[in-house]
Amino acid sequence: MKDRNSKSVSAALAAATCTLLGSGASAPVQAEEDPNWDFNSALLYYGEADDRVEDISLSFLAKRLLVDDRSLSIGLTVDVLTGATPNGAIRQDVPQTFTRPSGDSIYTIPAGALPLDDTFKDTRAALTVGWEQPLGRLWKTSVGFSGSKEYDYLHLGLNGSISRDFNNRNTTLSAGLALSQDSWDPVGGTPIAFAPMLDVGDTSNKLGDEDKDVIDIVLGVTQVVSRRMIVQLNYSFSDNSGYLTDPYKFLSLVDGTTGDTLTRTPAPGAEGPSHEFRFENRPDERTKHSLYGQTKYYMNGKVLDASYRYMTDDWEIDSHTVDVRFRWPLGETSYLEPHFRFYTQTAADFYRISLVDGDPLPAFASSDYRLGEFDAITAGLKFGWETDKGNEMSIRAELYQQDGTIPSSLLIGNQIGRETYPDLDAVIVQFSYRFSR
Amino acid sequence: MNKKNLGILAVMATLASGCTSMGVEPWERDILAKDEMQLTTDAIEAATDDHIYFSKEASSGGRGFGGGGCGCN
Amino acid sequence: MFACLLVVQLALPAQPASAADFDPNDYAGKVVVLDFWASWCVPCRRSFPWLNTMHEKYADEGLVIVGVNLDLERAEADRFLAEFPSSFKIVYDEKKALAKQFEVMAMPSSYVIGRNGKIVDQHLGFKVKKQAEYEAAILSALAQNGTEDE
Predict the structure, then answer these.
(1) Could you tell me which residues are beta bridge partners of residue A342?
(2) Angle between helices C42-58 and C131-143 (to 10 degrees)
(3) Do the bridges between strand A122-135 and strand C63-69 make them parallel or antiparallel, or are there none, so unpaired?
(4) Maximum CA extent, chain B
(5) 3-state SS assignment for residue A48
(6) CA distance linking residue A179 with residue C21, whole number of Å
(7) For all residues of chain A together, what is the average pLDDT?
């Protein structure tokens, strides 16, 4: 691939890079001025099988380039989410009825089906603003703001970073800090921990809104290994405190012998759940540590991008992620990039399938499949090309598949054989367009 | 956990100091200056993936910033 | 493409030469700005218009600008110069001997060599905001006569 003269765009915490500009116009007598703006846009479709979640999102990232490597970045993303997500209850051999989070109506799941809540029709808007500049010759700094809003959730965050080059710019040490203050205003209110799901109109199990604070710290070292290879190693620390529970998820209350969910009858004249469900409860603290390593290696025009991440936290979740991309240039102006990602995680220590009637209540419990034990594989292909005007377009299609395991120790009675992990199958398609002005 | 943190930081400090002899001359950064050799080549794609995996898995982030590139100015 | 070729004809031609051609003795009594650059370096490209301007303004007063190219692929340098021509002399430091001799630590690097053959100023990188500073260094070097010692 020829050395495309184009400025690449970086997100709030990413450093500016030093690349040449796109020049499709006729050559001037003098060297062309740097472009003022660099635009990056993308349209994404994310769709899960079995009528689960579907997401369409539109993203824009505009970078205003100013004199001597300073820049202002503004990013805007809008998401529209529809579809259904597992609500945490187990399957039954009979139909099950649930009260919606709003408490206004009910929905019924057929016998044998995985209980899904399709209340999720949401629109989310996210904004990021970032400023980056060098400090002297060897230092670089950035500050940024991030915010996002959806019907029931607000995120506000500030971030900053600093980096310094050593060894003739072969080594770079960097440090970043991000602080977030998020708040939940769930539809129908925040459920009291382990409160039962009640009939339509009964909101005595719900409270108001809740907050969540996050502190993220990243320390990194980047090293140029050779003319063709660069390596990065990062340590990340994340502290989450506040309301970390999912207000829409609950567990089935089951009989200790049969493993079947206890049934219930709504009050006379009222509509309500057909079985006993208890809202989940997670700790109000979570500390995560990650170690991430990445390398980029250039081989005759082809680029290998490989990374590994190890994460461990105090919820007893450990995960490993391996991500490999290989960019294959096709002629002068296009490329093909296969992508493969493997992910595996262990379950949180409070992850369980159901609550047993009569047993003492645990401190914390959740049956959210995202806290369980599973492997996930992503396989995709991206095709990118340069247009006549020197702008870049690309399209990628990926398949994402989660394959989980429920340890037999968590299954009781009739649950064995009936209860399976709500494996996820999703397709990701994204089209992107980048241009400079 | 404290000992683990110190251990990790010690490894990184060792790597950083041990890296003094590794690297290239300023004029040998032609390949590293290319778009496709930056640590994050597509900011939107990286942010999109981070968001998808954050929503569907229990881990997030890890990726860093800084370094590489042409090393100019 | 045609506009590009036309521009090459209109601009003052760069004179390709190898590093062996650069002999400081050829420039005794003149002020030499030795500028190390490469096609893939953005600040280098930003410095070209300024270097062209310095050449136009002060060549009559004895300023000689020599652009030392450090591209590892000669074709890239040629492609760059076809698009962004220089009015000053270009030298190709193929073996990187000049770069090593001057201990180049950043791209671009500029050395101002006074009329007496000694380095009187140098700057690492090119910052648009420091152009006045760079120009002042050249003027100061031009003001000295060749027999003065540092």
Answers:
(1) A322, A377
(2) 40
(3) unpaired
(4) 44
(5) strand
(6) 58
(7) 90
What's the total number of domains in chain C?
A: 1
**Which residues, given as ranges, of chain C have pLDDT below 50?**
1-16, 148, 150
Q: CB B9 to CB A61 under 8 A?
A: no
Domain holding C108, by residue range, is 33-143
Picking from A72-86, A147-161, A363-377, B7-21, which range would have the lowest pLDDT averaged per residue?
B7-21
Flag if B27 and C42 touch (Cβ within 8 Å): no
- Establish if C97 touches chain B: CB-CB under 8 angstroms: no
Contact between A197 and A98 under an 8 Å Cβ cutoff? The reply is yes
Across the B/C interface, how many CB contacts are shorter than 8 Å? Answer: 50
Residue C16 lies in a domain: no
Distance from CA of C149 to the nearest CA of B (A): 31
Q: DSSP characters for B23-72?
A: ---GGG-TTTTSGGGSS-S-HHHHHHHHHHHHHHSS----------S---
Structural contact between residues C117 and C149, judged by C-beta atoms closer than 8 angstroms: no
> Is residue C18 situated within a structural domain?
no
* pLDDT greater than 70 at residue B18: no
How close is the nearest chain C Cα to the Cα of B27, in Å?
6
- Position A26 scores a pLDDT of 34
More confident call, A167 vs C23: A167
List % helix, strand, coil for chain C (3-state, nearest 5).
45, 20, 35
Torsion on CA atoms B49, B54, B55, B56, rounded to nearest 10: 90
Cα separation, C70 vs B27, whole angstroms: 6
Cβ of A292 and B62 within 8 Å?
A: yes
Q: Which domains, ranges and CATH numbers included, belong to chain A?
A: 37-436 (2.40.160.40)
Give ∠ CA C124-A218-A168 in degrees, rounded to 5: 20
Q: What 3-state class would DSSP assign to A261?
A: strand
Q: Which pLDDT belongs to residue A206?
A: 87
CA C128 to chain CA centroid, Å, is: 16
A144: nearest Cα among C129, B47, C94: B47
Amino acid of residue C51: L
Q: What is the CATH number of the domain that holds C122?
A: 3.40.30.10
Asked if the structure places residue C90 within a domain, the reply is yes
Question: According to DSSP H, which parts of A31-73 are helical?
Answer: none
- Whole-angstrom distance, CA of residue A356 vs CA of residue B48: 39
The reply to whether B18 touches chain A by the CB within 8 Å rule is no
Q: Which residues pair with A331 in a beta bridge?
A: none
- CA-to-CA separations, A10 to A4, A74, B35, C10, in angstroms, rounded: 17, 10, 11, 38
User: Which amino acid is residue A144, in one-letter code?
Assistant: G
Q: In terms of CA atoms, which chain C residue is nearest residue A70? A: C127
Percent of chain A at pLDDT above 70?
92
A273: helix, coil or strand?
coil
pLDDT tops 50 at residue A8:
no
The 10 Å Cβ neighbour count of residue C136 is: 12
More confident residue, A170 or A13: A170
Q: What is the mean pLDDT of residues A133-156?
A: 94
Phi, psi (deg, nearest 5) at residue A171: -120, 135
Q: Where are the domains of chain B?
A: 26-60
Tell me the C-alpha distance between A91 and A242, whole Å.
Answer: 31
* C11 lies in some domain: no
> Between residues 67 and 106 of chain C, which touch chain A (CB distance below 8 Å)?
76, 82-85, 105-106
- Maximum distance among all Cα pairs of chain A, rounded to whole angstroms: 87
- Classified as helix, coil or strand, A69 is coil
Give A241: exposed, middle or buried? Use CB within 10 Å, 0-12, 13-18, 19+: middle
